[in-house]
Design brief:
38% of the residues lie in helices and 23% in strands. It is of the alpha/beta class and 187 residues long. Helix 5 packs antiparallel against helix 8.
């Protein structure tokens, strides 16, 4: 399975890829990860490839070959939608983070993205706030991903909780559960 995880710097996309990789390794799969995060510290685009299978040679996913895109921001989902294979799926946060051209007034945030995206939207920010902190939005999205991909919930949640600081476990557990409950399993 080829999964592209995208978002904006600071959203926890790199942590998400490591959690997914940890889960896959625990299940006995070969995993390759590759990160692209040039201007991430300034709110720039972040992209991580996660390839899971019996034997993976390269960590890179070519355009048009991703089975699944996990997007932590709506515009980032649209920006990388061309990576999705025919029949693939996008799971995206409905959160809108204004890129610098929008902030400066040089551009406008695109409208109508939901209609253009072939995917499932999750209000990850609102659910993270319910869990106790906006920074838990990545855990919300991981819970939703777990459900959509029909992954073993207990093992996936363990991979998440083993990857975060002890003091944030309860908040992230709650965020994961809220994300899991927010979507339906894929058929």
């Amino acid at each position: 399975m080829d999964i592209l995880i995208v978002g904006v710097g600071g959203q926890g996309t790199l942590l998400a890829s490591r959690v997914l990789g940890r889960y896959a390794l625990e299940k006995g799969h070969d995993v390759k990860l590759s990160e692209v995060h040039g201007m991430a510290q300034r709110g720039g685009s972040v992209m991580t490839y996660v390839r899971i299978g019996e034997k993976i040679a390269s960590p890179i996913i070519d355009e048009g070959y991703a089975d699944f895109i996990l997007a932590f921001e709506k515009l980032e989902a649209m920006r990388y939608a061309h990576y999705l294979r025919e029949g693939g799926e996008i799971l995206y946060s409905t959160q809108e983070i204004m890129p610098m051209p929008v902030v400066t007034g040089a551009a406008e945030y695109p409208q109508g993205l939901e209609e253009k995206l072939r995917g499932v939207g999750v209000d990850a920010l609102e659910l993270a706030l319910q869990a106790g902190n906006a920074k838990a939005a990545n855990s919300v999205m991981l819970g939703a991903l777990c459900k959509r991909l029909n992954l073993e919930k207990q093992a996936f949640e363990k991979a998440l909780l083993d990857s975060i600081p002890q003091k944030t476990i309860e908040m992230n557990r709650k965020a994961f559960e809220l994300g899991y409950a927010a979507v339906q399993a894929a058929v």
